[in-house]
Amino acid sequence: MEAPQQLIFVDFEFTMPEGKANPRGFYPEIIEVGIVSVINQTAHRQFSSYVRPVQFPFLTNRCKSFLNISQSQVNSGISFLDLIAILKDFGNYPNTTVITWGNMDMKVLRQNCLKNNVEFPFHAKFRDLSMEYKKFFGDRNQTGLWKAVEEYGKKGTGRHHCALDDALTTYNIYNLVENDKRYLQKPAPPTIGDRIDFSKVMNKFAT
Q1: Inside any domain, residue 79
Q2: What is the pTM of this model?
Q3: In a domain? residue 1
Q4: Which of 79, 103, 167, 187 has the highest local Cβ count within 10 Å?
């Protein structure tokens, strides 16, 4: 019997350079992680932590201001290797799909693994919910996470650019979109022509 599907909603926050010009060798590093595991359409477990960057350990003022994050918070976080071990543990399930809002999270994770000579932790299917949202509603451009929530007349969970809150908000949008898909797939109610065999009716009146 096939194991139930696990959906993992993942969100990362990254380091940023001070200005538009990147310093020599700079690349975005993960400094916060939020994960929500869902099995059988029920939230199974979640995880949240700050992560210490390796190559550029000191946050820029722009990064601290944009993410509302402090150097001490990041300094108290887990190591990148600890993060990889946790992601592996979440992904260690036979039927798993990783869902993100946009492709940047997995792109940066792959780059961080490459820079640290660490194996990519997931062997799973991947879904970019922002692209699904774009196609579903026929939008020209990709919609930001919290704008998408507002378009549904809802509010995001907690605080934007907090990794766990964004992962939970992605999970909420997933449910909203899936419900809309199911609604649109419902068969149309039968018409009177579907209910009545008019050939029998005409034969009855002809006799």
Answers
A1: yes
A2: 0.85
A3: no
A4: 167
